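ingest -> validate -> predict -> emit
validate: passed (alphabet ok, no gaps, 87 aa)
predict: started
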Amino acid sequence: MSGDRARRIEERLRERLGAVRVEVIDESHLHAGHAGARSGAGHFRATVVSPRFADLSRIEAQRLVYQALDDMMGGEIHALSLHCEAP
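emit:
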């Protein structure tokens, strides 16, 4: 299931942000027993490379990612660590 979730995150970021590179790593196993893990939401680390990040601050780029994943946040995604860059 978590592999499916990571794949959905990747597809969503490619589609909504025109990302040319996306790597999503499920780190949920590192947070066993954590409140978010108990609820079934996952912990993920993502690297996202998108031309949409050009000329944006780190925070602005991360906001775009969170907007793209808005309906997954808090339900399927408990925590998301991001590295965003332009090509």
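The mean pLDDT is 88.
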